[in-house]
Amino acid sequence: MRKKKLTAGELIFQIMIYTLFGLFTLSCIYPFYYLFINTISSNDLSAAGYIKFYPRQIHFDNYSKVLRISGLGHAATVSVYRTVVGTLLTVGSSAFLGYLFTKKEMWGRSIWYRSVVVTMYFSAGLIPWYITMHNLHLTNNYLAYILPTIITPFNIILVKTFVEAIPPSLEESASMDGAGYMRVFWSIIVPLTTPILATITIFSAVNQWNSFIDTAFLMTDTKYYTLQFLLWRYLNESSSLAALIRNSPDMAASAANMQTPTSVRMTVTMIVVLPILIVYPFFQRFFVKGIMIGAVKG
Fold first, then answer.
1. How far apart are CA 154 and CA 131, in angstroms?
2. CB-side exposure of 34: number of CA atoms within 13 Å?
3. Which one is predicted more confidently, 280 or 141?
4. CA–CA dist 233, 255 (Å, integer)
5. 3-state secondary structure string, 90-155?
6. 298: pLDDT strictly greater than 50
7. Which of 73, 86, 115, 186 is a good FRET partner for 267, with 20 to 30 A between their CA atoms?
8. Residues 155, 202: contact at Cβ < 8 Å?
9. Residue 216's CB: how many other CB atoms inside 10 A?
10. What is the pLDDT of residue 259?
11. CA dist 178 to 149, 163, 172, 181, 182, Å?
12. With left for phi above 0 and alpha for psi between -120 and 50, is residue 60 left, alpha or beta?
């Protein structure tokens, strides 16, 4: 099949589109590249702002020091646990509740739905939240990472809107063949809502992976520390120590190869964001489709 010959106008238009797309792609990639080359370059040059486009005086001491933090492996396991389990339960509950809220025969559907939605606009605040978690014995408890995020109003609204766009005749046909609500949910609703469920998976996984405030308030036992909290604490401690040493006249001479607050911050950022960068491309196709359909139908 012969390709259609482009006119001069179409060729110029395509060149402009690809140029803009290329520039936009570079603008998205460059921040991560900038972080990486600064983490493997001389800490002094990085702190002085000399590292812009390529690394200089390459070394990997920043990564080796961060990866040698005591308890890092266990903290990473806790973070993976809360991300996997928390995401699965959040997606499952959002899908099922979103489906139930589309059923007019559900008892008190309007009241239950409004009760869920209203929590998007009102928050009791930090102190009531802590008192509630403490009274529920969720301090130093893994469930503190899972239970508060199971019911997420925004996710439920996305699923409900998506399910309402599915032709009712599909469910009616299944019901006439004897399928109940659970059978319809697993065999029809879940396969057809894959894009929006993938979108919620991304939202929930990123939120769970990046969370560390709940650890700071609720966990005093080190076995419950997450990777993000451990790195956050290391960031504060090492940044303060590096600044103190560099401001000391007696120790400034030996500080040339030490980590700087900037190098610590960039290294921790790279380590935390790397898993998300690896996982995101696998969900990107569903994410775009799901969020677009949810936005249009909403």
1. 25
2. 12
3. 141
4. 22
5. HHHHHHHHHHHCCCCCCCCHHHHHHHHHHCCCCCCCHHHHHHHHHHCCCCCCCHHHHHHHCCCHHH
6. no
7. 86
8. no
9. 13
10. 67
11. 34, 21, 10, 10, 11
12. alpha
Structure tokens at 191: 């396969």
Q: Can you read off the two tokens belonging to residue 122?
A: 């009102």
SS3 69: coil
CA-CA distance, 242 to 267, in Å (whole number)?
14
Structure tokens at 197: 């469920």
Q: Report the alpha-carbon distance of residue 259 to residue 268 in Å, rounded.
A: 12
Q: Read off the pTM.
A: 0.75
Report residue 4 as tokens.
Answer: 């259609």
110, pLDDT greater than 70: yes
Task: Decide: 91 and 152 in contact? Cβ < 8 Å.
Answer: no
Q: Are 245 and 160 in contact (CB under 8 A)?
A: no
* Residue 57, SS3 per DSSP: coil
Report whether 159 contacts 196 (CB < 8 A). Answer: yes
